[in-house]
């Protein structure tokens, strides 16, 4: 569906709207603009744009909604989808905030396209950002997905799910989101933050409360540092083919819930996972696997379990239990 090129002024509210059928009142269209905009936030952006055909009352209202919810499954071709999103950003009211973006694309997206989307959202008071797509970076072994030179003070929720088997998709050395409270990352790579080989992507996220890392990796770094005084929920998950090739150091004295799933590599210093006692930990779930159960594997697991002494709920998979008996 084509988008109108000019910004249309929001019509004034009418107390009642009548059709040719005498006595019929369109009560929905007579609602205040703020309520109509709130209703439209539950629609996909394509559906919101299509409300233009309902009546003059609805014409151009979509340009003021604070959400962008778009997925390519609602379009016949991927190119139509990407052009649609670009036109929405071009024609929406530039003075209106864009609090929530949920973008899902089953095909390939250029890194520059993502950077443009993020830059627009960051300048329009973005609070929630969810992005799920394949990343196209032909002839590049390492792709710096986006930069955080300027902080985004409004972002509170971040969910990135990136897929590209042949290339490394890197995040900035530091996620410059000081208000971030919840973060979910899948398929990304953390670069080294200093010459000592430490990756510290969350060092500036002082309010981070919930963190989930799924099938991620390191680039030119040996240790991932997860530091957060307010961090209460942490999930670390590695894919079936990922042998946990690097060390993770967790400094989270107020951690309440911890979950780990993946294969352990006994050659790494995984026993240094936690740098503090976990006195406040209430829930723990461990699904740890190893190519060959050994005494080193058992030592790692037992060091973890000693940290979980105060938990109210502990879940271990059968292979993890077998490993502790070695």
Short description:
The protein has 326 residues and is α/β, with parallel strands linked by helices. 18% of the residues lie in helices and 27% in strands. The chain contains 6 helices and 17 strands.
Can you tag this structure with a few keywords?
326 residues, elongated, alpha/beta, 3-stranded parallel beta sheet
Question: What do you see in this structure?
Answer:
α4 (111-122) links the parallel β2 and β3. This protein starts with 32 loop residues before the first helix and ends with a helix. A 10-stranded parallel sheet has the order 1-2-3-5-7-10-13-15-16-17. With 326 residues, it is α/β, with parallel strands linked by helices. It has helices at residues 33-40, 45-50, 78-91, 111-122, 295-307, 318-324, and strands at residues 67-71, 100-109, 128-135, 142-144, 157-163, 168-170, 182-186, 189-191, 198-199, 210-214, 217-219, 223-227, 233-237, 247-251, 257-263, 283-289, 313-316. The longest helix has 14 residues, at 78-91.
> Fraction of residues in helices?
10-25%
The strand count comes to 17
Radius of gyration: 24 Å
Distance between the termini: 63 Å
- Count of discrete alpha- or pi-helical segments spanning 4 or more residues: 6
Using the alpha-carbon principal axes, give the shape: elongated
Profile the largest sheet.
10 strands, parallel
β-sheet strand percentage: 25-35%
């Amino acid at each position: 569906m084509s988008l109108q090129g000019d910004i249309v002024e929001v019509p004034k509210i009418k107390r009642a709207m009548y059709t040719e059928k005498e006595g019929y009142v369109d009560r929905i269209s007579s609602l205040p603009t703020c309520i109509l905009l709130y209703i439209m936030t539950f629609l996909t952006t394509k559906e919101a744009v299509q409300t233009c055909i309902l009546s003059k009352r609805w014409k151009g209202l979509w340009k003021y909604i604070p959400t962008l919810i778009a997925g390519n499954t609602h379009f016949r071709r991927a190119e139509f989808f990407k052009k649609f999103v670009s036109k929405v950003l071009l024609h929406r009211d530039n003075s209106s905030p864009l609090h929530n973006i949920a973008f899902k694309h089953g095909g390939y997206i250029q890194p520059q396209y993502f950077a443009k989307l993020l830059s627009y959202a960051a300048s329009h008071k973005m609070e929630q950002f969810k992005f799920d797509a394949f990343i196209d970076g032909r002839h590049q072994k390492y792709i710096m997905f986006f930069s955080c030179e300027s902080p985004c003070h409004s972002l509170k929720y971040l969910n990135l799910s990136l897929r590209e088997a042949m290339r490394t998709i890197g995040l900035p050395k530091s996620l410059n989101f000081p208000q971030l409270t919840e973060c979910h990352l899948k398929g990304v790579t953390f670069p080294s933050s200093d010459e000592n080989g430490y990756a510290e992507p969350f060092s500036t996220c002082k309010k981070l409360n919930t963190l989930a890392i799924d099938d991620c990796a390191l680039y030119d770094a040996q240790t991932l540092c997860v530091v957060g005084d307010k961090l209460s929920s942490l999930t670390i998950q590695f894919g079936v083919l990922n042998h946990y090739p690097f060390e993770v150091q967790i400094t989270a004295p107020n951690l309440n819930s911890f979950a780990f799933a993946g294969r352990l590599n006994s050659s790494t210093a995984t026993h240094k996972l936690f740098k503090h006692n976990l006195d406040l930990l209430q829930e723990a779930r461990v699904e740890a696997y190893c190519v060959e159960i050994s005494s080193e594997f058992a030592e790692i697991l037992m060091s973890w379990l000693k940290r979980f002494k105060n938990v109210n709920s502990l879940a271990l998979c059968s292979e993890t239990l077998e490993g502790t008996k070695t």
